[in-house]
Amino acid sequence: MTTMTSPNHAEQLSAIAQMEPLLEVKDLKKYFPIQAGFLKHTVGYVKAVDEVNITVQAGETLGVVGESGSGKTTLGRTIIRLYEPTGGDVLLRDGNRVLNVFELDSKQMHIFRRNAQMIFQDPYASLNPRMNVLETVGEPLLVNNIAKGRDLEERVAKVIQQVGLRVEHLRRFPHSFSGGQRQRIGIARALVVNPKLVVADEPVSALDVSIQAQILNLLKDLQAQYQLTYIFISHAMSVIRYMSDRIAVMYAGKLVELGPKQDILSHPLHPYSEALLSAVPKTTQRRKRIVSRGEVPDLGNLPAGCVFHPRCKYATEQCRTAIPHLRTISPGRTVSCHLADTLALEGI
Ligand SMILES: Nc1ncnc2c1ncn2[C@@H]1O[C@H](COP(=O)(O)OP(=O)(O)O)[C@@H](O)[C@H]1O
Ligand code: SF4
Ligand SMILES: [Mg+2]
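^ thats the input. predicted complex w/ iron/sulfur cluster below
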C-alpha cells in the first residue's frame, strides 16, 4: 500500500505531542436507560461509555479498537455531540479558545460543527436516498452558514474531486453509486467544512475487502494534505494497526489500555489487548490465536471486580473482587489490569 504521508510524519508527531491537545475527553459517561414493564420504568442502565479519559493531539490518529458492543460508536457519537452525555466533559481547542462541547450556545455549535465531523460506518444507511451528491455534500455548508449558491457549488465540486469522484457525479443520487463511492461521498460531506477533527466510525467495515485499502489510503492522503486529526474506530486490529499513531483499547464501555501503536503491538499490557492482537493474521509464522472465552458482558449487568475476569486466562482471586483502575506504567502508557507489571504478554 502506498500513501502520500510525508516521511517525517513521526518527527512531526513527536513535536506536536509536546503541545496542548486538540481534544480532551474527561470522565466521559454515556448510559442508556433500560426500560421494563408496561409503564416503561427505568430498571437499570447500559453503561456504553464509562469514565473514559483520552486526549488527542493535532495531526495524529488515535485508533479505538474493541469487539462489537464495547462502546466505540457511542464514544465517537458522544464526543461529536450526536448523543447527549450522561457525565463528563469534552474540550476542543479552536485557536486560542477552548470549546466546552457540552455547553455550546447555538453560535458556538456552528463553530464546533465546522471543526469536528463524523464519517459513518454504513455508507448505504447514512446517505439520504432523495438527496443528490450536491445536496448531500453541500448540506453542512448550508446549515452551518458557511456557503450557499455558486460558492457552495464550487466548494462541493472541489471536495468531490479531492475524494476521487467527478463533477459529473454532482446531480446523481446515492443508489447509482457503489459502496466505495458512497463512502467517498460520506468523506466529502465530512470534509467540506474543513474540519480539524474527524471521527471515522468503522469507515470500511461495510465495504468489500478489495476496496477497503483504497478508502484507508484516501483517508491517510487527506490527513497528510489537510493536517486532519482522526479518531479512527474499528473492531479490526489489522485496520487499526495500519491507520493509528496511538491505540485506545475499549472493553465493555471502559478504556482498558492506551499507548503508542508500536508499544501496544509489540508489548501489550492488558490481556484483552493480547487477545485482540492474536487474531491479526501473520504472514511469516503461524500464531496461536488466544480465544477469549464467552462474550462481551451484558453492559447493564457487569461482573464484579475486573469486567474482563470471566474471560481472562490470567485472572486471580483479586480480579474477581477488586476493580483495576487505569494507571500509568510508563510515559504515555496506561492500563487497567492488576497484573500489568508481572505478566509478559505476547505481541506481534
Ligand atoms: N441508542 C442506544 N440505545 C440503547 N442502547 C444502546 C444504544 N446504542 C448503543 N447501545 C448499547 O451500548 C453498547 C455499546 O454499543 P456501541 O457503542 O454501538 O458499541 P460498538 O460500536 O463498540 O459496537 C451496546 O450494549 C449497545 O447495545
Ligand atoms: S485484572 Fe485480572 S482479570 Fe482483569 S485483565 Fe488483569 S489479570 Fe485479567
Ligand atoms: Mg460501532
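Residues 1-5 have pLDDT under 50 and may be disordered.
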